[in-house]
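pasting for the record
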Amino acid sequence: MEDLSLEERLLYENVSPSLFETKMLSGKTDIQYLGESGKLVSHFKESFERAKIRSQDIIQFATASPANFIRFYKHLQDSWKVYLELSSKMASLSENLDFLFPEKLKLFQDMVQLTFELNTHIYLITDIEKEIYERNIENLSEDRMMLLIESVKSFPVYLIEEVNSDSLSTKNPYEIREILAKNPHLRKLFSLSGSSVELFGQLLSHSSQLNKKAERTEFSPQNEYEESLKGILMYDHFFELFLRESGMLMTDLKFYIDIADRVSCSKDIPSILSKLGELNIAFNENFRPNIPQYKQTQLSCGATCLANVVGTYYPYIKVNNSLEDGIHKLVTVPGFFNNLPSSLAYVSRDKLGIPSHFFAEFSSFGPLFLKQKAAQEPLRKFQGDYEKIKGDALDYAVITTAELKEKLGNGHLISFVCGQSPMLHYKMIVGYKFKESQKYFYVFDPAYGMEKIPETEMLGHMRNDKSLWGVEYVPPESVIFGRTRELLSKAREILSWQP
């Protein structure tokens, strides 16, 4: 970081280099998104007009003293950082809108509402930011004021210096990749702008706006007040323009439109929030997600369950015989048909990136399969892979149907081993219906398809003639849920700010 310019440090502090490293799964261009955003934009304008009532109070506060101005600047920084990180989470979560479950729906409700409100708030404080810094900069001597103003580089100037050419304007993705391969300076900017070819093309279109480099002076802040003044000028002249021209500020708009398409509602915030709320209530009573329901073609029931997990959590991956067969080879040993549960958990986690937990009733399972070190297959492979994943193992000795329902509501898929030895068989719990007198679980049998198991029979159905064991799969996206909730909490705090 030490060899980066002030502008680059500003970017790295606020924009994750991987912010927009996501696939364009919706198949839409920015032009199409804008064409569908009419109601969202109108609602935003109405929200902004209501928010403007606070403008004069904030201006008076931020210009009353240097200490107040510093507080305003820190609030501006916090607002942008939280908004951009929430945008990053939206971009990540947009990769799988097919698989919705109660926990995710509640998270989406909060994200839509709070990010929209935060966007409105940022627009408000950005709208009055110029007046606030102009009044405060007058507190400096004329020499210091001019030195500060001349030291701040605009985004077009920064871009033309990095491009090192009068113009490299193109939006052709193949041409952009060729340019990046030849220019290390542009590769650095490409990383800073989110490593998205589409967005980077929009940035390059501004390299033709200037035909010469600007001479800049250096300004070293003497105190926190001057440091804040320089920082807010950087926001005004560089950072905000960078965000607008890169297209990054459209991330939440795209998220709203994609969700509206997914849940089939009008493309406006009240309709989206209402629909998500309705679905969450409905899903708490009856949750039956659309999984691929791919059936086994060999003695691969456990591997086939995992293949269906892959297709559910990664909807852009095709579930077919090659996936089934590939997993099957990794979870078996030659000469034995057993699909080893520890191997399934290991392959899921370390080969496919899907968090998983081997589970068992260890009081009965342990003496049979873990007490003595095995010398022969397939138990030797089972124990070897178990050592790799035992830190995440769960004891299902006292599991309840209420806990199973809660796990499913969090998007987990629970594959268990039932039947009689030697032909044990994997099935997978994927959903539930808990409404009045109708209470049962949806269970996918990779040999025969979907079936309904009454709640009263579910725990017994999960057992086999030896014990209870299987694999609990966890949505990969859930690893960012905790941080997303922290950001939403921070957004609430920012929105309650009183100058």
